[in-house]
Amino acid sequence: MTDSVGTTQWLAARRKLLEAEKEFQRARDKLSATRRALPKRALAEDYVFEGEDGSVALSQLFGNHSQLIVYHFMFHPEWDEGCKSCSFWADSFDGMLPHLAARDVAFCVISHAPLAKLLAYRERMGWHFPWLSTAGNAFNFDFNVSFTTEQLESGNAVYNYKDGPVNGREKPGASVFQKDGDTIYHTYSTYARGLDNLNPVYQLLDLTPRGRDESDLSFPQEWVKRHDEYR
Are the C-beta atoms of 75 and 124 separated by less than 8 Å? Predict the structure, then answer.
């Protein structure tokens, strides 16, 4: 632990940090503008998923909105529980839904596992956000978050825009879509550390003296548990 300082020294250090924070925020605003300016690609397929009320197409997930965010939640068909790290992210989803809707954005979660498993796990976790199963379509594979046995064995897969070996049959991500008339555009996807900004717990931990406090762990999220597993 560092030695304590007086108020004058603390304020001087804090004001210096404030300038760095402002510079970072300006850079972040510029990056966000660059992200929004990415070219769009029209999708050739209106994927059909399995939802609580039956089959639902990607175009229907927009509802009355023109924009849609999909969180790719890791849940392989053979698993009995959803990924604990994705669950860490998902704990914040319900509260943001009305705020996103107010800005013309729909939101849902899509996973590879059968719908019955997804809904049972959602009930256990106490969540309410829309959760759909890929129901045998190629959506997860086309967006590089699920991988075949052949891809894993050959080391020939794509994740986070890189070709090569992938560790695991499922990976997390988030994708953004826009609808204009009957055309659906894919505007953005992010994976791995690109998902950090979607996790409010990490943003709060970053404000604390010890931060995320993960440097001595065997992997960064080793400490994370499903919220009903903490003791």
Answer: no
Partnered with residue 131 across adjacent β-strands are: 109
- Residues linked to residue 158 through DSSP beta bridges, in sequence order: 163
Helix, strand, coil percentages in the chain from 3-state DSSP, rounded to 5: 35, 20, 40
Distance CA 215, CA 133 (A): 35
Report which residue type is found at 179: K
At a CB cut-off of 8 Å and minimum separation 6, what does 203 contact? Answer: 197
**Domain spans, the chain:** 41-200
Unique residue bearing structure tokens 């406090």: 213
Distances (CA, A) of 164 to 146, 158, 218: 14, 6, 23
Q: What is the CATH number of domain 41-200?
A: 3.40.30.10
130 Cβ partners below 8 Å, 6+ apart? 51, 52, 61, 107, 108, 109
Q: How many CB atoms lie within 10 A of CB 201?
A: 13
Q: What pTM, to 2 d.p., does this model score?
A: 0.95
Find, among 130, 124, 116, 126, the residue nearest to 73 by Cα. 130
Q: Model confidence over 146-183: pLDDT tens digits?
A: 999 999 999 999 999 999 999 999 999 999 999 999 99
